[in-house]
Amino acid sequence: MKPPKFALYRPKSLDQVVEVIHSMGGAAALLAGGQSLIPMLNFRIASPEVLVDLAGIPELDIIEIRDGSLFIGAMTRQRVAEQDPLVVRYAPLFVDALRWVGHATTRTRGTIGGSISLADPSAELPLALLVMDGCVHAMGKNGQRVIDADKFFTGSYSTSLKQDEIVIGISVPIVENLEGFSVEEFSRRRGDFATAGVASLIQLNSDKKRVLRIGLCGVAGRPLRLFSAEKVFAENSGPIEKQIQFASEVAIDDIDTAMFLESEDERYMQRLIRELTSRSLHRAFGVGTRSSGDY
Amino acid sequence: MITDYQVHSADDLVPISLVVNGIRREGSCSVRKLLIDFLREDLGLTGTHAGCEHGICGACTILIDGKASRSCITFAFQVSGLSLTTIEGLSNDGQMHQLQKAFMDKHALQCGFCTPGMLMTAFDLLNENPTPNECQVREALGSVICRCTGYQNIVEAVLSVSQQPNDLPELKSKT
Fold first, then answer.
1. What residues in A contact B8, CB-CB < 8 Å?
2. Has this prediction a pTM greater than 0.90?
3. Nearest to A8 among B31, B74, B125 (CB)
4. What distance in Å separates the CA atoms of residue A200 and residue A226, rounded to the nearest whole number?
5. For chain A, how far is it from start to end, CA to CA, in angstroms?
6. Is A103's CB within 8 Å of B75's CB?
Protein backbone atom coordinates (compact mmCIF):
# COMPACT_ATOMS: atom_id res chain seq x y z
CA MET A 1 0.00 0.00 0.00
CA LYS A 2 2.94 2.30 -0.65
CA PRO A 3 3.39 4.12 -3.93
CA PRO A 4 5.90 2.86 -6.50
CA LYS A 5 9.00 4.87 -7.37
CA PHE A 6 8.57 7.95 -9.54
CA ALA A 7 10.60 10.99 -10.50
CA LEU A 8 9.09 14.31 -9.44
CA TYR A 9 8.96 17.39 -11.65
CA ARG A 10 7.92 20.70 -10.09
CA PRO A 11 7.38 23.16 -12.96
CA LYS A 12 6.84 26.85 -12.25
CA SER A 13 4.74 27.82 -15.28
CA LEU A 14 2.07 26.44 -17.58
CA ASP A 15 4.50 26.44 -20.51
CA GLN A 16 6.83 24.19 -18.56
CA VAL A 17 3.96 21.82 -17.69
CA VAL A 18 2.94 21.55 -21.35
CA GLU A 19 6.56 20.97 -22.36
CA VAL A 20 6.93 18.09 -19.90
CA ILE A 21 3.60 16.47 -20.87
CA HIS A 22 4.46 16.77 -24.54
CA SER A 23 7.90 15.21 -24.20
CA MET A 24 6.96 12.51 -21.68
CA GLY A 25 3.56 11.55 -23.08
CA GLY A 26 1.86 8.77 -21.18
CA ALA A 27 4.80 8.29 -18.82
CA ALA A 28 3.84 11.38 -16.83
CA ALA A 29 0.91 11.74 -14.44
CA LEU A 30 -0.36 15.12 -13.23
CA LEU A 31 -0.51 15.64 -9.47
CA ALA A 32 -3.27 18.08 -8.57
CA GLY A 33 -4.99 17.38 -5.23
CA GLY A 34 -3.93 13.74 -5.30
CA GLN A 35 -7.19 12.52 -3.76
CA SER A 36 -7.83 10.18 -6.70
CA LEU A 37 -4.27 9.71 -8.00
CA ILE A 38 -2.49 8.87 -4.76
CA PRO A 39 -4.93 6.07 -3.81
CA MET A 40 -4.24 4.61 -7.25
CA LEU A 41 -0.50 4.87 -6.64
CA ASN A 42 -0.85 3.33 -3.18
CA PHE A 43 -2.77 0.42 -4.71
CA ARG A 44 -0.12 0.26 -7.43
CA ILE A 45 -2.73 0.23 -10.15
CA ALA A 46 -0.87 3.19 -11.65
CA SER A 47 2.92 3.41 -12.02
CA PRO A 48 3.82 6.60 -13.85
CA GLU A 49 7.54 7.19 -14.34
CA VAL A 50 7.07 10.85 -13.57
CA LEU A 51 4.72 12.90 -11.40
CA VAL A 52 4.24 16.52 -12.42
CA ASP A 53 3.33 18.64 -9.38
CA LEU A 54 0.88 21.37 -10.40
CA ALA A 55 0.86 23.09 -7.01
CA GLY A 56 3.37 25.77 -7.99
CA ILE A 57 1.51 27.23 -10.98
CA PRO A 58 -0.15 30.53 -10.01
CA GLU A 59 -2.36 30.79 -13.13
CA LEU A 60 -4.17 27.62 -12.09
CA ASP A 61 -5.18 28.78 -8.63
CA ILE A 62 -7.59 31.61 -9.36
CA ILE A 63 -11.31 32.45 -9.28
CA GLU A 64 -12.41 35.52 -11.25
CA ILE A 65 -14.91 37.03 -13.67
CA ARG A 66 -13.69 37.06 -17.27
CA ASP A 67 -15.84 38.41 -20.09
CA GLY A 68 -19.16 37.75 -18.42
CA SER A 69 -18.16 34.27 -17.27
CA LEU A 70 -16.97 32.92 -13.97
CA PHE A 71 -13.56 31.29 -14.41
CA ILE A 72 -12.31 28.78 -11.85
CA GLY A 73 -8.70 27.65 -12.20
CA ALA A 74 -7.98 23.93 -12.26
CA MET A 75 -5.94 23.90 -9.04
CA THR A 76 -8.65 25.64 -7.00
CA ARG A 77 -9.29 23.44 -3.98
CA GLN A 78 -12.87 22.17 -3.86
CA ARG A 79 -13.29 23.42 -0.33
CA VAL A 80 -12.13 26.91 -1.33
CA ALA A 81 -14.50 26.96 -4.31
CA GLU A 82 -17.56 26.02 -2.26
CA GLN A 83 -17.03 28.98 0.06
CA ASP A 84 -15.78 31.56 -2.44
CA PRO A 85 -18.15 34.56 -2.63
CA LEU A 86 -18.00 34.68 -6.46
CA VAL A 87 -18.89 31.00 -6.76
CA VAL A 88 -21.66 31.29 -4.17
CA ARG A 89 -23.10 34.30 -5.97
CA TYR A 90 -22.68 33.34 -9.65
CA ALA A 91 -22.54 29.53 -9.66
CA PRO A 92 -24.54 28.30 -6.67
CA LEU A 93 -25.24 25.02 -8.48
CA PHE A 94 -21.52 24.24 -8.06
CA VAL A 95 -21.81 24.87 -4.33
CA ASP A 96 -24.75 22.46 -4.14
CA ALA A 97 -22.83 19.92 -6.25
CA LEU A 98 -19.69 20.23 -4.12
CA ARG A 99 -21.43 19.16 -0.91
CA TRP A 100 -21.73 15.71 -2.50
CA VAL A 101 -18.12 15.48 -3.67
CA GLY A 102 -16.25 13.13 -1.33
CA HIS A 103 -16.15 14.52 2.19
CA ALA A 104 -15.17 17.93 3.53
CA THR A 105 -11.80 16.39 4.42
CA THR A 106 -11.05 15.25 0.86
CA ARG A 107 -12.30 18.58 -0.50
CA THR A 108 -9.52 20.32 1.45
CA ARG A 109 -6.96 18.90 -0.99
CA GLY A 110 -9.06 17.81 -3.97
CA THR A 111 -9.25 20.26 -6.87
CA ILE A 112 -11.88 21.40 -9.36
CA GLY A 113 -9.62 20.55 -12.32
CA GLY A 114 -8.78 17.13 -10.92
CA SER A 115 -12.44 16.14 -10.66
CA ILE A 116 -13.29 17.52 -14.11
CA SER A 117 -10.39 15.83 -15.90
CA LEU A 118 -10.88 12.49 -14.12
CA ALA A 119 -14.45 12.44 -15.52
CA ASP A 120 -15.71 9.77 -13.16
CA PRO A 121 -19.09 8.62 -14.55
CA SER A 122 -20.90 9.41 -11.31
CA ALA A 123 -19.11 12.69 -10.59
CA GLU A 124 -21.13 15.73 -9.61
CA LEU A 125 -18.91 18.53 -10.95
CA PRO A 126 -19.07 17.35 -14.59
CA LEU A 127 -22.86 17.15 -14.19
CA ALA A 128 -23.07 20.66 -12.76
CA LEU A 129 -20.78 22.01 -15.49
CA LEU A 130 -23.00 20.47 -18.19
CA VAL A 131 -26.23 21.79 -16.68
CA MET A 132 -24.71 25.26 -16.29
CA ASP A 133 -23.72 25.24 -19.98
CA GLY A 134 -20.10 25.61 -18.95
CA CYS A 135 -16.85 24.86 -20.70
CA VAL A 136 -13.45 23.44 -20.01
CA HIS A 137 -10.32 25.45 -20.77
CA ALA A 138 -7.45 23.32 -21.99
CA MET A 139 -3.88 24.07 -22.93
CA GLY A 140 -1.50 22.07 -25.07
CA LYS A 141 1.47 22.45 -27.34
CA ASN A 142 -0.69 24.30 -29.87
CA GLY A 143 -2.01 26.77 -27.34
CA GLN A 144 -5.25 27.15 -25.42
CA ARG A 145 -8.73 26.12 -26.45
CA VAL A 146 -12.19 26.13 -24.95
CA ILE A 147 -14.29 22.97 -25.05
CA ASP A 148 -18.05 22.89 -24.34
CA ALA A 149 -18.88 20.56 -21.46
CA ASP A 150 -21.08 18.52 -23.75
CA LYS A 151 -18.12 17.84 -26.06
CA PHE A 152 -15.61 17.40 -23.25
CA PHE A 153 -17.07 14.40 -21.41
CA THR A 154 -17.04 11.49 -23.83
CA GLY A 155 -17.51 8.52 -21.53
CA SER A 156 -16.42 6.81 -18.35
CA TYR A 157 -13.08 8.41 -17.28
CA SER A 158 -12.81 9.62 -20.83
CA THR A 159 -12.54 13.17 -22.15
CA SER A 160 -11.75 14.83 -25.45
CA LEU A 161 -8.44 16.18 -24.16
CA LYS A 162 -5.55 15.49 -26.51
CA GLN A 163 -2.44 13.64 -25.30
CA ASP A 164 -0.45 16.81 -24.66
CA GLU A 165 -3.30 18.89 -23.16
CA ILE A 166 -4.13 19.70 -19.58
CA VAL A 167 -7.22 21.24 -18.04
CA ILE A 168 -6.36 24.74 -16.87
CA GLY A 169 -9.81 25.71 -15.64
CA ILE A 170 -13.55 25.78 -16.17
CA SER A 171 -15.92 28.63 -16.84
CA VAL A 172 -19.66 29.12 -16.66
CA PRO A 173 -21.71 32.02 -18.03
CA ILE A 174 -22.90 34.41 -15.34
CA VAL A 175 -26.53 33.45 -14.84
CA GLU A 176 -28.94 36.34 -14.52
CA ASN A 177 -32.40 35.78 -13.12
CA LEU A 178 -31.57 32.54 -11.40
CA GLU A 179 -34.80 31.20 -9.90
CA GLY A 180 -33.69 27.94 -8.34
CA PHE A 181 -31.14 25.16 -8.38
CA SER A 182 -30.50 21.83 -6.73
CA VAL A 183 -28.35 18.74 -6.90
CA GLU A 184 -29.78 15.51 -5.53
CA GLU A 185 -27.92 12.26 -5.36
CA PHE A 186 -28.42 8.69 -4.17
CA SER A 187 -25.67 6.35 -3.03
CA ARG A 188 -25.85 3.15 -1.03
CA ARG A 189 -23.86 4.72 1.78
CA ARG A 190 -23.56 8.42 2.42
CA GLY A 191 -20.36 9.68 0.84
CA ASP A 192 -20.06 6.78 -1.59
CA PHE A 193 -19.86 7.29 -5.33
CA ALA A 194 -23.33 8.13 -6.59
CA THR A 195 -25.58 5.44 -8.02
CA ALA A 196 -27.22 8.38 -9.80
CA GLY A 197 -27.50 12.13 -9.38
CA VAL A 198 -29.71 14.87 -10.83
CA ALA A 199 -28.94 18.58 -11.11
CA SER A 200 -31.55 21.23 -11.94
CA LEU A 201 -31.20 24.88 -12.79
CA ILE A 202 -34.14 27.26 -13.27
CA GLN A 203 -33.80 30.67 -14.85
CA LEU A 204 -36.25 33.32 -15.98
CA ASN A 205 -35.88 34.19 -19.65
CA SER A 206 -36.57 37.62 -21.17
CA ASP A 207 -40.31 36.81 -21.34
CA LYS A 208 -40.30 36.11 -17.61
CA LYS A 209 -40.90 32.44 -18.37
CA ARG A 210 -39.18 29.75 -16.33
CA VAL A 211 -36.57 27.80 -18.26
CA LEU A 212 -35.32 24.52 -16.85
CA ARG A 213 -31.99 22.83 -17.49
CA ILE A 214 -31.69 19.43 -15.90
CA GLY A 215 -29.12 16.66 -16.10
CA LEU A 216 -28.27 13.21 -14.79
CA CYS A 217 -25.01 11.53 -13.76
CA GLY A 218 -24.17 7.93 -12.92
CA VAL A 219 -25.70 6.44 -16.05
CA ALA A 220 -24.14 6.10 -19.50
CA GLY A 221 -20.61 6.89 -18.34
CA ARG A 222 -21.00 10.66 -18.67
CA PRO A 223 -23.46 13.35 -17.60
CA LEU A 224 -26.59 13.68 -19.74
CA ARG A 225 -29.19 16.38 -20.19
CA LEU A 226 -32.77 15.27 -19.60
CA PHE A 227 -34.33 17.08 -22.56
CA SER A 228 -37.73 15.43 -22.24
CA ALA A 229 -38.09 16.80 -18.73
CA GLU A 230 -36.94 20.24 -19.89
CA LYS A 231 -39.58 20.25 -22.63
CA VAL A 232 -42.34 19.73 -20.10
CA PHE A 233 -41.62 23.13 -18.61
CA ALA A 234 -41.04 24.80 -21.96
CA GLU A 235 -44.33 23.61 -23.43
CA ASN A 236 -46.68 23.45 -20.50
CA SER A 237 -47.93 25.70 -17.82
CA GLY A 238 -50.20 25.00 -14.93
CA PRO A 239 -49.65 23.91 -11.37
CA ILE A 240 -45.97 23.38 -10.62
CA GLU A 241 -46.67 20.16 -8.74
CA LYS A 242 -48.29 18.57 -11.78
CA GLN A 243 -45.48 19.71 -14.06
CA ILE A 244 -42.87 18.29 -11.70
CA GLN A 245 -44.70 14.96 -11.60
CA PHE A 246 -44.97 14.82 -15.35
CA ALA A 247 -41.34 15.83 -15.86
CA SER A 248 -40.19 13.12 -13.44
CA GLU A 249 -42.18 10.51 -15.37
CA VAL A 250 -40.75 11.48 -18.76
CA ALA A 251 -37.17 12.01 -17.54
CA ILE A 252 -36.38 8.39 -18.25
CA ASP A 253 -37.45 8.81 -21.90
CA ASP A 254 -33.96 10.19 -22.49
CA ILE A 255 -32.28 7.12 -21.03
CA ASP A 256 -31.63 4.16 -23.27
CA THR A 257 -31.83 1.13 -20.99
CA ALA A 258 -28.72 -0.16 -22.72
CA MET A 259 -26.89 2.53 -20.76
CA PHE A 260 -27.46 0.76 -17.45
CA LEU A 261 -24.75 -1.55 -16.22
CA GLU A 262 -25.52 -5.26 -16.45
CA SER A 263 -25.45 -5.42 -12.69
CA GLU A 264 -28.19 -2.81 -12.39
CA ASP A 265 -31.88 -3.64 -12.41
CA GLU A 266 -33.55 -1.62 -15.15
CA ARG A 267 -36.75 -0.87 -13.24
CA TYR A 268 -34.81 0.04 -10.11
CA MET A 269 -32.69 2.55 -11.99
CA GLN A 270 -35.71 4.02 -13.77
CA ARG A 271 -37.49 4.40 -10.47
CA LEU A 272 -34.40 5.95 -8.89
CA ILE A 273 -34.06 8.47 -11.72
CA ARG A 274 -37.73 9.39 -11.44
CA GLU A 275 -37.42 9.93 -7.69
CA LEU A 276 -34.20 11.96 -7.93
CA THR A 277 -35.69 14.11 -10.70
CA SER A 278 -38.73 14.72 -8.55
CA ARG A 279 -36.66 15.65 -5.48
CA SER A 280 -34.35 17.89 -7.45
CA LEU A 281 -37.22 19.72 -9.13
CA HIS A 282 -39.12 20.12 -5.88
CA ARG A 283 -36.10 21.71 -4.22
CA ALA A 284 -35.22 23.84 -7.23
CA PHE A 285 -38.76 25.19 -7.44
CA GLY A 286 -38.79 25.71 -3.71
CA VAL A 287 -41.86 23.56 -3.15
CA GLY A 288 -40.16 20.90 -1.06
CA THR A 289 -37.35 21.13 1.43
CA ARG A 290 -36.34 17.53 2.06
CA SER A 291 -33.02 16.77 0.42
CA SER A 292 -31.47 13.36 -0.13
CA GLY A 293 -28.72 14.77 2.04
CA ASP A 294 -30.86 15.00 5.15
CA TYR A 295 -30.80 12.15 7.64
CA MET B 1 13.65 22.12 -23.24
CA ILE B 2 12.88 24.46 -20.40
CA THR B 3 14.44 22.92 -17.33
CA ASP B 4 14.91 25.68 -14.78
CA TYR B 5 12.57 23.92 -12.37
CA GLN B 6 13.10 21.27 -9.74
CA VAL B 7 13.47 17.70 -10.89
CA HIS B 8 13.93 14.96 -8.30
CA SER B 9 14.82 11.46 -9.36
CA ALA B 10 13.11 8.54 -7.65
CA ASP B 11 16.11 7.94 -5.41
CA ASP B 12 16.64 11.55 -4.35
CA LEU B 13 15.92 12.76 -0.85
CA VAL B 14 13.92 15.99 -0.70
CA PRO B 15 14.31 18.42 2.20
CA ILE B 16 11.15 18.90 4.24
CA SER B 17 10.69 21.91 6.51
CA LEU B 18 7.36 22.53 8.17
CA VAL B 19 5.63 23.56 11.37
CA VAL B 20 3.97 20.74 13.29
CA ASN B 21 1.89 21.55 16.36
CA GLY B 22 3.48 24.97 16.59
CA ILE B 23 7.06 23.73 16.39
CA ARG B 24 9.34 23.92 13.35
CA ARG B 25 10.45 20.46 12.22
CA GLU B 26 13.02 19.61 9.56
CA GLY B 27 13.79 16.38 7.79
CA SER B 28 14.33 14.77 4.45
CA CYS B 29 12.74 11.83 2.74
CA SER B 30 12.05 10.13 -0.55
CA VAL B 31 9.70 11.94 -2.96
CA ARG B 32 7.27 9.04 -2.64
CA LYS B 33 7.12 9.03 1.17
CA LEU B 34 3.54 9.53 2.33
CA LEU B 35 2.87 12.20 4.91
CA ILE B 36 1.41 9.63 7.31
CA ASP B 37 4.72 7.74 7.25
CA PHE B 38 6.82 10.90 7.53
CA LEU B 39 4.84 11.91 10.63
CA ARG B 40 5.05 8.50 12.26
CA GLU B 41 8.57 7.41 11.26
CA ASP B 42 10.58 10.59 10.73
CA LEU B 43 8.92 12.81 13.34
CA GLY B 44 7.96 10.11 15.83
CA LEU B 45 4.34 11.35 15.95
CA THR B 46 2.58 8.01 16.12
CA GLY B 47 -0.77 9.35 17.29
CA THR B 48 -1.92 9.58 13.65
CA HIS B 49 -2.96 6.12 12.48
CA ALA B 50 -2.65 4.42 9.09
CA GLY B 51 -5.81 2.42 8.43
CA CYS B 52 -6.58 1.91 4.76
CA GLU B 53 -3.91 3.95 2.96
CA HIS B 54 -6.36 4.99 0.27
CA GLY B 55 -8.21 7.86 1.86
CA ILE B 56 -11.39 6.06 2.91
CA CYS B 57 -11.15 5.24 6.62
CA GLY B 58 -10.15 8.64 7.98
CA ALA B 59 -7.92 7.38 10.80
CA CYS B 60 -5.05 9.35 9.27
CA THR B 61 -6.87 12.69 9.38
CA ILE B 62 -4.78 15.67 10.47
CA LEU B 63 -5.05 19.43 9.87
CA ILE B 64 -3.08 21.09 7.07
CA ASP B 65 -3.14 24.87 7.55
CA GLY B 66 -6.07 24.37 9.91
CA LYS B 67 -8.23 22.21 7.62
CA ALA B 68 -8.79 18.47 7.96
CA SER B 69 -6.89 16.41 5.37
CA ARG B 70 -5.99 12.78 4.79
CA SER B 71 -2.30 12.26 5.48
CA CYS B 72 -2.26 8.83 3.78
CA ILE B 73 -3.00 10.33 0.36
CA THR B 74 -0.68 13.28 0.69
CA PHE B 75 3.05 13.15 -0.01
CA ALA B 76 5.38 14.62 2.61
CA PHE B 77 6.93 16.91 -0.01
CA GLN B 78 3.54 18.50 -0.67
CA VAL B 79 3.35 20.01 2.82
CA SER B 80 6.87 21.38 3.12
CA GLY B 81 6.44 25.03 4.08
CA LEU B 82 2.98 24.50 5.57
CA SER B 83 1.65 24.25 9.11
CA LEU B 84 0.26 20.96 10.39
CA THR B 85 -1.69 19.97 13.46
CA THR B 86 -1.77 16.35 14.55
CA ILE B 87 -3.62 14.70 17.42
CA GLU B 88 -0.60 15.37 19.62
CA GLY B 89 -1.26 19.08 19.13
CA LEU B 90 -4.84 18.98 20.32
CA SER B 91 -3.97 19.03 23.98
CA ASN B 92 -2.31 22.12 25.42
CA ASP B 93 0.48 21.90 28.02
CA GLY B 94 -0.86 18.59 29.27
CA GLN B 95 -4.44 19.81 29.40
CA MET B 96 -6.91 17.83 27.31
CA HIS B 97 -8.82 19.71 24.64
CA GLN B 98 -12.50 20.07 25.37
CA LEU B 99 -13.25 17.53 22.61
CA GLN B 100 -10.92 14.96 24.18
CA LYS B 101 -12.55 15.44 27.56
CA ALA B 102 -15.99 15.02 25.98
CA PHE B 103 -14.86 11.79 24.26
CA MET B 104 -13.73 10.52 27.64
CA ASP B 105 -16.91 11.60 29.44
CA LYS B 106 -19.22 10.15 26.78
CA HIS B 107 -17.23 6.92 26.25
CA ALA B 108 -16.73 7.80 22.61
CA LEU B 109 -13.91 5.34 21.97
CA GLN B 110 -13.28 1.63 22.45
CA CYS B 111 -10.18 0.41 20.60
CA GLY B 112 -9.18 4.00 19.89
CA PHE B 113 -7.84 3.38 16.39
CA CYS B 114 -10.18 5.82 14.62
CA THR B 115 -10.16 8.26 17.51
CA PRO B 116 -7.40 10.62 16.32
CA GLY B 117 -9.19 10.87 12.99
CA MET B 118 -12.54 11.44 14.70
CA LEU B 119 -11.11 14.17 16.93
CA MET B 120 -9.35 16.06 14.14
CA THR B 121 -12.47 15.81 11.95
CA ALA B 122 -14.66 17.03 14.81
CA PHE B 123 -12.24 19.87 15.49
CA ASP B 124 -12.39 20.91 11.83
CA LEU B 125 -16.21 20.78 11.91
CA LEU B 126 -16.45 22.97 14.99
CA ASN B 127 -13.98 25.45 13.51
CA GLU B 128 -16.19 25.84 10.46
CA ASN B 129 -19.46 25.65 12.35
CA PRO B 130 -19.33 26.06 16.13
CA THR B 131 -22.96 25.00 16.59
CA PRO B 132 -23.69 22.13 14.23
CA ASN B 133 -26.93 20.20 14.51
CA GLU B 134 -26.95 16.41 14.80
CA CYS B 135 -27.37 15.99 11.04
CA GLN B 136 -24.25 18.06 10.39
CA VAL B 137 -22.26 16.22 13.06
CA ARG B 138 -23.22 12.85 11.52
CA GLU B 139 -22.32 14.16 8.07
CA ALA B 140 -18.83 15.08 9.25
CA LEU B 141 -18.18 12.00 11.37
CA GLY B 142 -19.45 9.76 8.58
CA SER B 143 -16.18 10.47 6.80
CA VAL B 144 -14.29 8.43 9.43
CA ILE B 145 -14.93 4.71 9.84
CA CYS B 146 -15.46 3.37 13.35
CA ARG B 147 -15.96 -0.37 13.71
CA CYS B 148 -16.37 -0.42 17.47
CA THR B 149 -18.77 2.16 18.80
CA GLY B 150 -21.66 2.47 16.38
CA TYR B 151 -20.95 6.25 16.36
CA GLN B 152 -23.68 7.19 18.85
CA ASN B 153 -21.39 8.19 21.71
CA ILE B 154 -19.02 10.00 19.34
CA VAL B 155 -21.95 12.04 18.02
CA GLU B 156 -23.04 12.86 21.57
CA ALA B 157 -19.52 13.83 22.58
CA VAL B 158 -19.22 16.28 19.67
CA LEU B 159 -22.71 17.66 20.26
CA SER B 160 -21.93 18.21 23.93
CA VAL B 161 -18.95 20.40 22.95
CA SER B 162 -20.98 22.27 20.35
CA GLN B 163 -23.33 23.45 23.07
CA GLN B 164 -20.57 25.68 24.41
CA PRO B 165 -19.10 27.35 21.33
CA ASN B 166 -17.28 30.14 23.10
CA ASP B 167 -15.26 27.80 25.24
CA LEU B 168 -13.09 26.18 22.55
CA PRO B 169 -9.49 26.59 23.69
CA GLU B 170 -7.08 27.89 21.06
CA LEU B 171 -4.41 25.55 19.78
CA LYS B 172 -0.88 26.64 20.65
CA SER B 173 0.68 28.48 17.72
CA LYS B 174 4.19 29.47 18.72
CA THR B 175 6.66 29.18 15.87
1. 7-8, 10
2. yes
3. B31
4. 10
5. 34
6. no
| Cα–Cα distance, A146 to A137 (Å, whole number) | 5
Inter-chain touch A105–B61, beta carbons under 8 Å: yes
Amino acid at A80: V
Smallest Cβ–Cβ distance between A109 and the set B1, B69, B140 belongs to B69
**Complex ipTM value:** 0.93
Cβ of B58 and A105 within 8 Å?
yes
User: DSSP H helical segments within A28-111, as ranges?
Assistant: 37-43, 78-81, 85-90, 92-98, 104-109
Q: Which of B78, B135, B139 sits opposite A55 (nearest CB)?
A: B78
pLDDT tens track, chain A, 295 positions? 899 999 999 999 999 999 999 999 889 999 999 999 999 999 999 999 999 999 989 999 999 999 999 999 999 999 999 999 999 999 999 999 999 999 999 999 999 999 999 999 999 999 999 999 999 999 999 999 999 999 999 999 999 999 999 999 999 999 788 999 999 999 988 778 899 999 999 998 888 888 999 999 998 899 999 999 999 988 878 899 999 999 999 999 988 878 887 677 888 999 999 999 999 999 999 876 556 665 4
- Chain B hits for A4, CB-CB cut-off 8 Å, are 32
